[in-house]
Amino acid sequence: MKKNLFSLAALLLAGISMHAQEVKFEEYDLDNGMHVILHQDNSAPVVTTSVMYHVGAKDENPERTGMAHFFEHLLFEGTKNIPRGEWFTIVSSNGGSNNANTTDDRTYYYEVFPSNSLELGLWMESERLLHPIINQIGVDTQNEVVKEEKRLRVDNQPYGNLLAEVKQYIFKKHPYKGTTIGKMEHLDAASLEEFKAFNKKFYVPNNAVLVVAGDIDVAETKKMVQNYFGPIPRGEAIVRNFPKEDPITETITAKAYDSNIQIPAVIAAYRTPSFKERDAYVLDMISSYLSDGKSSVLYKKLVDDKKMALQVAAVNLSQEDYGTYALFALPLGDVTLDQLVSEMDEEVVKIQQELISEKDHQKLLNKFENNFVNANSSVAGIANSLARYYMLYGDVNLINNELEIYKSITRKEMQAVANKYLNPNQRLILDYLPQKDDN
């Protein structure tokens, strides 16, 4: 399955979700607390049925990490009315496709079908919620699947543990200090009763949003939604009270080792605010200015002109409660990691001390507007965005007006935010090195 695991790729891609022309939608609540969002687009005979659950790695028992991601796999095992191993066969035999992904903040499941199979998609997602089969056979099967995924995507992947190393220093109290995929020994130790309890707590309609997007008749869709999801019992309210992090007041220095790499890396990482905060949008703009594309400040300086780095990036990895802003570089030749940090710092200081040029600011705005026009080109992408903006941002209409936030950011605001968050005494400097020779 497609994963949303943090990795080197995440550090190198500072993507920002934008949206094209106005997306019209209708939203309402079922009596059991499930939120429903409908988006009608009859331009193609395709429909997406999706459910996002407000449960991710941060919701886990710290002694049972990996549970949220594990459920992403486990809930494809089968249900009372879908035989074990038949989920994907049913979808493909009806001309559809499906997937799921997990982050620290949420878990998302979806199917894309020809629009005449809308009812099938709704039935299958209601089955996942109402009648999942959670037994030892399924747990044991998916345990091996997850272990193999961890080996391929993390343990044996160059730089695969980089962000995990960063997070454990940036977050001391909040559960973001862990990893989405978790620790295999925790899953091995979990009892069947613990898996069932996790499902009972988090996989409830009042902790979910259902999105139906595409070639639909709204009135008929509402009837089907009520028929399949309305009778599902409401779960107990979920109370979240995560600990707050103390400010970072002096530079943290650390080293980590990776047997899969030959070229070291250096990361300067800062704790940043939730993606719901305006400052997070400003940090996105700063990231784009520093390293988005070959004409960006850091790439042009360190890769093209000075030839000090093989790769360089600046990215704001925002999440629901906090974010991590990272400057990242791979050295070229005999260049030291300290030299790379100094060079990157120099460009940050310029932003802090001087306004970027009007030309560069306009270039940024044009870039963001172009992203806005080109993104959400599929019904599946729109469904994902509608679910995410409701569940994590509390404002579905961001799918239409998020661009206006970016367009309102001034050069002076970029300077102020850089001064607020990107200071040496507020960060981690991590040297990510090839495995030490034990001889």
From TrEMBL:
GO MF assignments: metal ion binding; metallopeptidase activity
Source species, domain of life: Bacteria
Peptidase M16 C-terminal domain ranges (all copies): 191-366
Keywords: Hydrolase, Metalloprotease, Protease, Signal, Zinc
Pfam families: Peptidase_M16, Peptidase_M16_C
Residues of the Peptidase M16 N-terminal domain: 36-180
Keyword presence, NAD: no
Hydrolase among keywords: yes
Leader sequence residues: 1-20
Biological process terms in GO annotation: proteolysis
InterPro entries: Metalloenz_LuxS/M16 (IPR011249), Pept_M16_N (IPR011765), Peptidase_M16 (IPR050626), Peptidase_M16_C (IPR007863)
Protein family per UniProt: Belongs to the peptidase M16 family.
Alphabetized PANTHER family for the sequence: NARDILYSIN, PROTEIN YHJJ
Protein name in the entry: Insulinase family protein
